[in-house]
Amino acid sequence: MASKHQTMQDISAKEVVLSFIQALNDSDFDGARSHVDDGLVFQGVMGVRNSADEYFKDMKKMKFKYAVQKAFEDGDDVCLWYDITMGDKQIFSAGWYRVEDGKIVSFKVLFDPRPLLDQAKN
After folding, report:
1. For the chain, how are helix, strand and coil distributed in percent, rounded to 5?
2. Domains, the chain, ranges and CATH?
């Protein structure tokens, strides 16, 4: 988290993304929302969300939990490897986040959806 003397530009892209993930884990959706741009674009295996409001509407319902295994940073790009708990399934996933001016502007999450699709058939 930023100290009183840091600006959003002083915080690394990796710190922004990890703070976002921690807020989601804490079900602090207002805190998580503060780390993303209004025009957030999310691309995932199961769909696309074209605004922060649309993304958080879904996240408040799903309440996923994230266990970060590894975080990589390259300038404004951050890649996370994490286990995402989705209901009673834990899915190994990768997320690619783009940060601009201290806010997440886009991210993509990739994972094998078969465990979720198999669950939906039952």
Report:
1. 35, 45, 25
2. 11-121 (3.10.450.50)
